[in-house]
Prior knowledge:
Blueprint: H1 8-18, H2 35-53, H3 57-63, E1 66-68, E2 71-73, H4 77-87, H5 106-119, H6 121-140, H7 143-154, E3 158-163, E4 179-182, E5 188-198, E6 207-216, E7 226-232, E8 234-237, E9 241-244, E10 247-252, E11 263-268, E12 275-279, H8 285-321, H9 344-376, H10 379-414, H11 426-433, H12 443-454, H13 457-478, H14 484-509, H15 513-518, H16 520-549, H17 554-574, H18 577-585
Parallel strand pairs: 3-6, 4-6
Antiparallel strand pairs: 1-2, 4-5, 5-11, 5-12, 6-7, 7-12, 8-9, 10-11
The structure holds flavin-adenine dinucleotide.
Flavin-adenine dinucleotide binds next to strand 3, strand 5 and helix 12.
Amino acid sequence: MALQYVDMSNIKFLLHEVHKVGDLARYPEYSEYDDDSISMIVETLKELADTYLFPYLEECDRTGVKYENGKVTVHPQVVKVMKMMGENGWIGAPYPVEAGGMQLPHMVAILNEFIFAAANNNLNGYPSLTMGAAGLIISFANDALKETYLEKMLTGKWQGTMALTEPQAGSSLSDITTTAIPTEDGHYKIKGTKTFISAGDYEGIENIVHLTLAKIEGAPTGAKGISLFVIPQKRPAAGGKLEPNGVATAGVFHKLGQRGYVTVQLALGDDDNCHGWLVGKPHHGLAYMFQMMNASRISVGTHAAAITSAAYHASLEFARERVQGRRWNERDLTLPQTEIINHPDIRRMLFMQKAVAEGGLSLVLQCTRYEDLHHVSEGEEKEKYDLLLELLTPLVKTFPADAGLQAVSNGLQVLGGSGFCEDYPLEQYYRDIRIMSIYEGTTGIQSLDLLGRKVQLQQGKAFKLFLAETQQTIAAAAEIPALQKYAGQLKSEVENLVGVTKHLGKIAATGDIELFLADATPYQQMFSLIAIAWQWLKQGIVASSVLQAGEKSGDDLIFYESKIHTMKYFFVYQLPETRALTTSITSGEKLTVLGDKDLLI
Ligand SMILES: Cc1cc2nc3c(=O)[nH]c(=O)nc-3n(C[C@H](O)[C@H](O)[C@H](O)COP(=O)(O)OP(=O)(O)OC[C@H]3O[C@@H](n4cnc5c(N)ncnc54)[C@H](O)[C@@H]3O)c2cc1C
């Protein structure tokens, strides 16, 4: 078992030096948290992850989930983690103090998810979902619902879920058919089937609170008719008791990865006795749920970057110990074999993993910084950070998921045959990360959102704001002789992105929307590479100025030199992939659009 799964020096570098979390302390909302206290919080998180999560990674996978006699059992550590997270206030970390939270900057709260998911991505999902579900109640529910549910959820006694998907409505949520019929008692009678519900049922937890999308009888068709309900597995009754609420588990899914993180199918109201309570106004449910979906998209990207980080450290450790062959310039067979970390091909795969993990985490922190700045600012500034966050959300979800999968595959490859076997964690990481490109909106759906909606937001205002952000970084890097080359490369990549976006805009103007959106995914991949290069250039600027000052030595010096080296790796090996993507996107061919005859045979 590898000993390390995150690099704390990297976390602190990104948090304090690149993304300047300490700046936030000047706002009253975050005045409790300065650089020192934040460092202590992050250290505490690592200690908790070392104790409660990391030792159980393999066990959670091997124990899996059992469904027998209508009961779902998971690894006993799930309930212990929920309790620990609740008792220490982590489930409410980013929420206001008056709502029972810690009012921690999102930049710090997200590191909770990063460190925990790197330690054990099977266990981390349970409190993470509860946090998101409680957030919906805080933002949109009435006082009675808050009174009944919040404290129980924030203390980890009750699990929270998001119940959106139905067998016939996955990506297309407007097609959900779960119905809600009003009653005179103030609640609604619910009937329907929800599928693929994470953390949807398990023994050992007092209750499970499903934040559920349904349509009130007679509601308008499509997304405009969707409402949000609180549907508890057991409904609170007189005397503080809990009684069954018509929520039945129809089965559990047997999955490729995340086998310790239960996913169930739920039958709601088969017994005509499922009560739901409306959250906020009728027919506003999807808009409300977007709060949780957007937060979850950032979380999923964070979890993917976290698994990539864990896989990188496991393969790095292996590569330092495994000896095989000799260096190509030392072919003397009487010499001992060399550690595989000395082979360029292994180094290429390790740098790729490092570039994706650390570049991905940097984008996560960039997004959560925008979230924090949006929270504390007003007027135009507030709108600016909101737009930037909207634009970058599909990228921060998909890049760590998709590039992370390739990175973890590289990690597995570094181990050779051992990577394919259960004796090492790489095969589990490879299986576990695969889901990140699917749930919370597939890569395809995120890409459509980016090109079809986010790039167009307010006549391209979000896109222009992103260009301004990158230009600022490029200008700062151009002042540093060692970075000029990379600043120039990113400048030309951004210009190319603008050109490709205009090219696609012309297709959109013809009204052929299917053709316009046909290459949304390659476009997203290109955009993501540029966003990550921007994050690497930011890191390069900080590392260069530290190295310029000449005050570092030993491991510290190596840390900053490694940053510059990994930045160069990204610019030389990964960023140029945009050129191939550009060629495909602007080819003028219509190879993926269905023509008169279907040639997919
Ligand atoms: C392990 C797991 C846990 C999950 N947890 C939850 C949960 O807690 N709560 C919850 O509500 N849901 C959950 N989900 C559901 C998940 O969000 C959906 O599986 C996902 O959104 C995709 O929906 P689908 O499976 O129905 O696939 P589909 O929507 O059928 O999509 C199939 C393929 O078609 C593509 N596609 C679909 N529509 C279009 C389109 N218009 N244009 C182009 N391509 C399209 C998709 O990108 C995808 O590649 C979970 C799923 C899994 C597997």
